[in-house]
Design a protein that fits this description.
Blueprint lengths: L1 E5 L2 E3 L20 E3 L1 H16 L4 E7 L5 H10 L3 E5 L9 H15 L4 E5 L10 H9 L3 E11 L3 E7 L4 E7 L2 E5 L11 H6 L6 E3 L40 H14 L4
Parallel strand pairs: 1-4, 1-6, 4-5, 5-11, 6-10, 7-10
Antiparallel strand pairs: 2-3, 7-8, 8-9
Length: 263
């Protein structure tokens, strides 16, 4: 069984600069971490491997060369292989172009049984990349998985959680799962694994190595959506004190809510 786990390097804090021309985040390797939801995706991958010792796990990510740091973290946690797909022509990709690039990388890797993604990333919060990868690959997918219940020869049984209910689903392989935070506790990188993997060379794939080499399908060129404006959130807090009887307080409170379009 071959498992591919998609991970991403995201900003470690909200103190992120924005390119005024392209409207995209300026990613600083000194202010970066592994996307928190991807920790649960990795742990779900490890839980599958524990049930199927012959399984192999390949961590993949799209990003600049410094994104290798999160792949190293995944290797030290327990993945068998790691691949970075990187190219200047991938810069500025929206969710569609990102999903397409990752799907092209997965096709290049070869026959894959299970693709696992975190539910979403903390820098985009769209929760769209996983399902879109599945669509590009033509495989079924199940979102919001919180537990891997059973692994059979050609199918897997999982439990997903939604706002109003939980579901148990059986899905045929190959498939894609997106992982919600759950009772799985992500493991820490192992020092023994770090020593063991110290000579491991992370594979790097560029646009010219993918099956589809058309640059119009990637990055800003392949992104049908464009960001009009993006800016760091304001930390400013304003307070207003209102005095008077209950009728006055109610009227002023209603006025404030209405002016700020909360009603």
């Amino acid at each position: 069984m071959k498992i591919v786990t998609c991970i991403k390097q995201v900003p470690a804090s909200s103190n992120v600069e924005v390119d005024p021309v392209t409207g995209v985040l300026i990613r600083d390797s000194n202010n970066a971490k592994l996307n928190p939801y991807d920790l649960y995706a990795l742990e779900a991958s490890f839980s599958i491997k524990e049930k199927n010792p012959n399984a192999t796990i390949t961590a993949i990510t799209m990003g600049p060369p410094n994104a290798k740091s999160v792949l190293k973290e995944a290797l030290y946690m327990g993945t068998d292989e790691a691949v970075l797909v990187t190219d200047r022509r991938f810069a500025g990709a929206d969710v569609l172009a990102t999903s397409y690039t990752l799907s092209q990388l997965i096709k290049l890797i070869g026959e894959v049984d299970i693709i696992i993604c975190g539910k979403q990333t903390t820098d985009g919060d769209t929760a769209q990349v996983g399902p879109e990868i599945a669509e590009f690959l033509g495989v079924p997918h199940i979102p919001y998985v919180i537990e891997i219940l059973e692994i059979l020869d050609d199918k897997i049984v999982v439990k997903s959680t939604y706002d109003t209910h939980d579901e148990i689903n059986e899905i045929k392989l190959p498939c894609l799962l997106t992982i919600e935070k759950s009772n799985l506790t992500p493991r820490l990188p192992s020092y023994k694994r770090k020593i063991k993997m110290k000579n491991y060379q992370i594979d790097t794939v560029t646009l010219d190595q993918l099956n589809d080499k058309n640059p119009k399908h990637y990055g800003l060129n392949g992104s049908p959506t464009q960001v009009e404006e993006i800016f760091p959130p304001s930390n400013e807090m304003k307070s207003k004190f209102i005095e008077g009887n209950k009728e006055t307080l109610a009227h002023e409170l209603y006025k404030i809510l209405d002016e700020n379009k909360f009603l």
